[in-house]
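Q: Got a minute? One more chain.
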Amino acid sequence: MSWKLLPAALLTLAACSARPAPDGAPARQYLYLWTRSSDSTAPDFLAVLDVTEDSARYGRLVTTLPVPGLGNYPHHTEHELPADRQLFANGFDSGITFIFDLTAPAAPRLAAQFGDVDGMRHPHSFLRLPNGNVLATFQMRHAGGAMLPGGLAEVTPAGQVVRSVRDSAAGLDPETRVYSAAIVPPLDRVVTTTTDMDHDYPASRQLQLWRLSDLALLKTFSLPDGPEGGLTAEPRVLADGKTVLVSTFQCGLYLLSGLEGDAPAAQMVASFPRMEGAYCAIPVVAGDYYLVTVPAWHAVVSLDIRDPSHPHEVSRAELGPGDVPHWIALSPDRRRVVVTGYKEMQHRVVLLRFDPTTGQLAVDPRFREVGDSVPGFRMDNKTWPHGGTAPGVPHGAVFGR
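A: Always. Here it is, folded:
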């Protein structure tokens, strides 16, 4: 197995990034992994890793917190830990949203959980609103034997519903699903994508534009024709707070325009090769750079987006030839990236180093199991603090603050 490891410049950056605590010791830094148990009779759980720089405990398991029920299918969390340290995470199959209290970073607790909202089920994405509440997307609702479009809900950090709206506009394809979202406060807009978690419906080519102030659905529109436009995935707001890029699972990248009016449109500005049976997936915006997983390259790619109409690659961190990266999230200091995925990395978590001034990415060779030949924290060789030895399958992952 070959790896593109950390160059000397990023090693220097890594050594300098830990800030000392008042007593001179490094401040403890943590990583949270929302994890499915591969044993259907065992609980799913949140795992906590110590990722403190220059520490003998770097990359070591601290604790785990199991959640109620079985077969929740842990999927997405928030993409960064909010200031209130209340982390939303979905159990997609069970339809339960779990809220973890991480105010004691090494001792998480389950603060609350809730299920259906206004008849909507299968929560997917969670985004913080300017007022500190959470905007949650729900894929669908059940009506008799039919599955209908879901919608949006605003929820307090304690899990109390403030308002909700169903995706039920006249003439809407009943197989439309609300997938992920981007909030654009200066334009009073929300952009959502429509890929179904269970089926690749034609509607997944579509985007939807909502008014943020009252959650009214303003427009459903489609990406331009082309093989890269299928399965709309993740919209992201750029550093100016108004420009939105949308990725697709079919490896296209689109720049949106006209969001402030009633005629939004999309233009493809980049694309990547596709891999049979795998999808381009989660992106993050880091200042002037857009990071995204590209399974065909077994890599996370860094694009310069200072001109968002013409993104160009500046770096890529190559993983193993059997690795399929999927989820990524950025550390608060923008210097580390966590990666989870499928195939040979379904039970392994990898950290990357990122230089926010140059956009350079590289695998962190220090983040590995003792005696292991490849980087990463393994979740298939553990006796878990909450009990059991079944391999864990991490998906959503987020750094502590």
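A: Residues 1-6, 11-20 have pLDDT under 50 and may be disordered.
Q: Perfect, thanks.
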